[in-house]
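Note to self: keep these together.
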Amino acid sequence: MAKDSKLEARLKAVLDGLAAADQDGGNANAGTVLSMAVAAHPFDEQEAHLLSGGVPRGYKALTTATAKLVKAGWMVKGRSGWAITEEGLRALVAFPTPEELGAALASGTPVPAGTELPAPAEAAPEAEVAPEVAQAEEPAQGEEEAPAGESAGRSGQPEAVAIAGDFAALLGGAADWAPELDEVQMEFNAPTLSWVRTVDLPAGTYSFKIALNRSWAENYGAFGSFDGANHELTHEGGTVTINYRHDTKDIAIA
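Structure:
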């Protein structure tokens, strides 16, 4: 598949993912949608090459190309996530293939007047549940219930946050700049609504980014910029604690 064709297919997959989220009644996590698009249309060796900031070339191209969907009025981006517009839903009807969608974006072709919204998918019938099964189960002996509100503090938070940079190998990771590794994941601190990780590093200067949900699809660099420049850490050696607040994208290093 040609380079442009693969990008068109991923953009179509992004719109499809946003349409599915819209049907579920909410915005979509940008990282999740982009990851699904890449999973459906994987990178080749050239696209998987890491740029100087540690982001695969293909991710950079895809995130940049989504600006075309915004310019066309087919999607919007916000802090609460990405969302498809009604015009975007109609675009999926008017331009049903990646090639047609890509051609429309390239030429600025508007969605034809009168294009109807796609029909909502029918919900699967709910399975009947026997009365005795429908009752809440008691915790098994020796098993404690989760404290009330424990999961509530994670509302609006990503599923995972990584300090992905050039020191992952020093933490036991298989490779640097790999946000999917367990060794670079941070822990969520509910009382402070922050993600925290304390590491022990030799003296030196290091670079890293905050990467969400074990991929580069959504990452934040200096000044909390999406896909921005690397954070720089000059360290005298020993333990260092990194804090990240997802609501503000702020980083604190102590």
